[in-house]
Design brief:
Layout lengths: L10 E5 L1 H10 L6 H10 L4 E5 L9 H10 L4 E5 L3 H10 L3 E4 L19 H13 L3 E6 L3 H10 L3 E5 L1 H5 L2 H20 L3 E5 L4 H8 L4 E6 L1 H10 L1 H15 L10
Parallel strand pairs: 1-2, 1-8, 2-3, 3-4, 4-5, 5-6, 6-7, 7-8
Helix pairs in contact: 9-11, 10-11
This protein binds pyridoxine-5'-phosphate (PXP).
Pyridoxine-5'-phosphate binds next to β8 and α10.
Length: 256
């Protein structure tokens, strides 16, 4: 109904990779990303997201094993489309696997997956994960061709890359937001569940939360950074409040 706020729930997946980045800086056990996942659950996260990279720069195999065993929330495993990562996913049976592009030399996941060009390579991974009962997400730019290809490949979900939107300013940011709005509508119309993430912070999350077809946001780096100043639970609670504000479920008065 026009003008009525969309009450579809918007889930928050908390990405704990960078808790492990800090731990690994000294090679010990502190801070423990699994402890952060427990805290995130208490603070209102709906899921835990972790990216096991080929070079193991943050999350380790042992972290994935512990997260699978110890955390009650759904685990979203971000992974490259490789035989090694497929074996990890099949061993631990996460709730969902989000296939991401991965280059060793990049600082973070720099762009979306090329589903159009990589269709033949990706098909085997999508099929094997689905056969194991794992929901398959493809992390893509909000591009019409990539969305169509993701649907054609049989993905359950797409996660739209919000990095370009978060980095842009002024008119360019408005243009990027327009691409995300159109991409979310297209993906939803095709029957794909729509997620979004990468680079989101307090000042960028509200407009993304306003997009009614998006039902999950995955957020990590900003939350872990902000936790230094206010604690992880407070950072997650504030992010949640801003997501609710975007959805029309809260007013500014709740945000403190
Ligand atoms: N979604 C995907 C698919 C990602 O690869 C990442 C980064 O690991 C995120 C979300 C979270 O991005 P950020 O850490 O910038 O919030």
């Amino acid at each position: 109904m026009p003008g009525k706020p969309d009450r579809r729930p918007l889930r928050l997946g908390v990405n704990i990779d960078h808790v492990a980045t800090i731990r690994n800086a000294r090679g010990g056990h502190h801070p423990d990303p699994v402890r952060a996942a427990h805290l995130a659950a208490r603070a209102g996260a709906d899921g835990i997201t972790a990216h096991l990279r080929e070079d193991r720069r943050h999350i380790s195999d042992h972290d994935i094993a512990r997260l699978s065993r110890e955390i009650d929330l759904p685990l979203n495993l971000e992974m490259a489309a490789t035989e090694e990562m497929l074996a990890v996913a099949l061993r631990h049976q996460p709730h969902a696997a989000c296939i991401v592009p991965e280059k060793r030399e990049e600082l973070t996941t720099e762009g979306g997956l090329d589903v159009v060009g990589g269709r033949d390579h990706l098909a085997r991974y999508v099929a094997a994960l689905k056969q194991a009962g794992i929901l398959v997400t493809l992390f893509i730019d909000p591009d019409e061709g990539q969305i169509r290809a993701s649907h054609a490949l049989g993905a359950d979900q797409v996660e739209l890359h919000t990095g370009a939107y978060c980095e842009a300013q002024g008119e360019a940011r408005a243009r990027e937001l327009g691409r995300l709005v159109a991409g979310a509508a297209q993906a939803h119309a095709l029957g794909l569940e729509v997620h979004a993430g990468h680079g989101l912070a307090y000042d960028t999350v509200v407009d993304i939360a306003r997009i009614p077809e998006i039902v999950e946001l995955n957020i990590g780096h900003f939350l872990v950074g902000e936790a230094i100043f206010c604690g992880l639970e407070a950072a997650i609670a504030r992010m949640r409040a801003l997501m609710d504000e975007g959805r029309g479920l809260a007013t500014r008065a709740h945000l403190g």
